[in-house]
Amino acid sequence: MTGPASPLPVHGCPLCEADGGTVVLAGSGWRVIRANEAGFPAFYRVVLTDHVAEWTDLDELRQAEVLRVVSVVERALRDQLQPTKINLAALGNVVPHLHWHVIARFDWDSHFPAPVWAVPLRQVPEERLQGVQSRLSCVEDQIRQRMAALA
Amino acid sequence: MTGPASPLPVHGCPLCEADGGTVVLAGSGWRVIRANEAGFPAFYRVVLTDHVAEWTDLDELRQAEVLRVVSVVERALRDQLQPTKINLAALGNVVPHLHWHVIARFDWDSHFPAPVWAVPLRQVPEERLQGVQSRLSCVEDQIRQRMAALA
């Protein structure tokens, strides 16, 4: 709608200059990364390739494309991990380059039911985190398979 | 996709049993509310009428409908308030009834650039908040007009 269709990479933007995490799948105009955030192994991001700041900088077609990827990631997290809740967010206050956080939350995690950005409420035994970690390859296989099926 | 098409209201759910804020506009299957959150006058929510928990409980058609409303709210906030950033989030850890937070953020607000759920960083002069507050009727007029135009 507004903004150029393919803006140039922005010098100094961490999501223009680097992947921002472990790339799970790179599509046309977006990538899925594992964020590797401490305490939240099942924390993924769908990052737009172009440096645009706001959701409404995308037209409806591109919104639908990006949302389809977000939904595939959410579905894989639900299917493979049975989390208590999925959290979706596009904030971008620090890095105004459009990216969706897709986070599997568990009632035992360090912050639940508070958002991951709030003050932690408890410590989590390492085994719990490793239990999730051990399933991430299944999550990521499902993401790749579903996106391939949609292509 | 999963879940019944129109689940019954859930006893004890605050978004089944009450509006959850000041209703700006009620549509078919959703409502836009002003959240009346202290320190964040331009904090709106798009609340699903049905009690469903997760984004992927909606089929693509309903996702697109809800996202169109979210985008109209975001666009009205951008046009009328020129915020530093828009924040979008569907968390639902405390109230697992699908609702999108649509928040206009300002570089002077109590938490910026941290999320609104983090620890506050500063106090905000009341005049700043009143300046935003005085523009909300324009935001809400635009929301109603754009949704009417789309109907």
Describe, in plain words, how this protein is organized in 3D.
Two copies of one chain form a homodimer. In chain A, strands 1-2-3-5-4 form a five-stranded antiparallel sheet, covered by helices on one side. The first copy, chain A, starts with 13 loop residues before the first helix and ends with a helix. Chain A has four helices and five strands. Chain A is an alpha+beta fold and 151 residues long. In chain A, a hairpin with a 3-residue loop joins strand 1 and strand 2 (30-34). The longest helix of chain A has 22 residues, at 60-81. The model of chain A has no long low-confidence stretch (mean pLDDT 95). The interface between A and B is medium-sized, with 34 and 34 residues.
- Tell me the structural class of chain A: alpha+beta
Cα-atom Rg of chain A, whole angstroms? Answer: 16 Å
Shape call of chain A: globular
Tally of strands of chain A: 5
Largest interface: A-B, 34 and 34 residues
- Please state the average pLDDT score of chain A: 95
Strand order within the widest beta sheet of chain A: 1-2-3-5-4
Largest sheet of chain A: 5 strands, antiparallel
Query: What kind of oligomer do you see?
Result: homodimer
